[in-house]
Amino acid sequence: MKNYYIIDFDSTFTQVEALDELARISLENHPDRDKIYQQIEDYTNLAMEGKISFRESLTGRVQLLSANKSHLDKLVTQLKKKVSRSFGRNKEFFKKHKDTALIVSGGFKEFITPVVTPYYIQNENIYANTFKFDKDGNIIGYDESNPLSDEGGKVKLLNELKLDGRIFGIGDGYSDFQLKESGLIEKFFAFTENIARKSVTDRADHITPSFDEFLYVNDLPRAISYPKNRILCLIVGNIPDIAVHILKTDGFSVRVKDTFEDKYTKDVGMLLLAEGTRVDDEQLSQADKLKTIGYLGDVKGYVNKKICTEKGIVIFDDKKQKKHNAGFIPRRMADFINNGDTYMSRNFPNLMLPRLIQAHRLLHIHKNVPGVMAQINNVYAENDINIISQFLMTKGEIGYAVTDIHTAYDRTVLKQLKQIDNTIKFRILYK
Length: 431
Description:
Pathway: Amino-acid biosynthesis; L-serine biosynthesis; L-serine from 3-phospho-D-glycerate: step 3/3
CATH architecture of the largest domain: 3-Layer(aba) Sandwich
Number of strands: 17
Largest sheet: 6 strands, parallel
Number of domains: 3
Distance between the termini: 29 Å
EC number: 3.1.3.3
Organism: Sphingobacterium gobiense
Keywords: Amino-acid biosynthesis, Hydrolase, Magnesium, Metal-binding, Serine biosynthesis
Radius of gyration: 25 Å
């Protein structure tokens, strides 16, 4: 039985509402532009929250646009730069599922098609409205016979398509939830990477803060092995806004607290600490998911470096207390999670790794004792693993082995690597 994926466009595939952006382009020199922008945004939000009909919203927005074909060209250029980050890095999914990935939107083909087709989405799988133009290329309306222009349009369209298989929907608005309500789709995933609407998230089968999350829970091909929105990044103390912004923008689940509360100990994956913040040894010993600590100051005397090293926790600190390190330290933490880099670490061998391309990266942290690398490479040899590149560095009691391999392998290999004697931590990265 085939699986079909019904994907919304505005605020889902892209970060923005396209008609709102079109208004900003077409009304740039209009004396009442701010007032009209607000009216258009109000129409958008009221429909997305199910407070007015979709047709009422669509008609109101199109009438306010004062747009033409030249404005659409500018819009497409902007939208191509505004593809949601998690969709942008998962082109391979669309390549592998080009027959069953559908864009279904109340937006317009004139701007949707050129944005999504570079992602292997086929023209015949793009369902959206179409504009009407006058002889001078001005938008004067839309095709009202298209079911997607009407209230419940996505439901009407799916009834017409009669897709034979299991259908999953992903979107941010009320019209997306209506598919679930109709019984036509198996599960509805509320997409919240760009905006979270409570009226939608409260009714969803699953809240997906990124497309990576959607692919992960459905065990589908994806660019990263573990969704960053599932990695809890705890920020403790008086931390500059730039540091918080960097980690949030990268997609981590960020929480800002005054103290490191014990209830977060078991789940925290990243810890960014303000100068003068102390973490006790018992908390560190119990933080089994913790991968990296960033410290905006000299970490000495505040975090037990020995325990961190024994648990494979990479420390980045600001020993010289330079002002720019409020941005530098969180970026180093993110680079370790994303790419395996340990450059400028306080307690680990310093590795600046090449970017991962069409491979899986296996990160093996172990005690620096003889024979570990022989065991690692025996596992690869016994399983006929094709190694693309391999890096090893040691520092004191720690060994850090990074191996890039081709993506075709038996997953039992991962279990074997974790069971090697003297293994401290093992992690896998996809790109």
